[in-house]
Amino acid sequence: MATIDLTGESFGGTVAGEGIVLVDFWAAWCGPCRAFAPAFEAASERHPDVVFAKVDTEAEVGLATANRITSIPTLMVIRDGVLVYKQPGALPEPQLELLISKARELDMDDVRRQIAESPTAA
């Protein structure tokens, strides 16, 4: 599966559903973003059941701001509508594969319980 481009209009609907969504916040002028792109694209081919999406932070400034993106590339992983990972930096392909594997293994009932019990959840 190829990557998809997200906009302010399509972001919410894409990340709110069931399943795993990886979102790469990037910009054309960013060297590390360009270096990470082939690994992200290759992973999208290996995992057709996962949504691989990209947000061009230059074209979607409001979306980047709303998601508090302060450094690029930043990778977000959303599973079943819940943000489970958000970190800046380009990942080598083996680490990206490990991250996808860990996202698959998550017990989402436990994740939701932990979020509900978190003191910052209020």
From TrEMBL:
Keywords: Disulfide bond, Redox-active center. One of its GO terms (molecular function) is protein-disulfide reductase activity. The active site is at C30, C33. Residues 1-105 form the Thioredoxin domain. The record marks G31, P32 as: Contributes to redox potential value. It holds the Pfam family Thioredoxin. The record marks D24 as: Deprotonates C-terminal active site Cys. It comes from Microbacterium invictum. InterPro entries: Thioredoxin (IPR005746), Thioredoxin-like_sf (IPR036249), Thioredoxin_CS (IPR017937), Thioredoxin_domain (IPR013766). Belongs to the thioredoxin family. The keyword Disulfide bond applies. This is Thioredoxin. The keyword Disulfide bond applies. The lineage of its organism: Bacteria, Bacillati, Actinomycetota, Actinomycetes, Micrococcales.
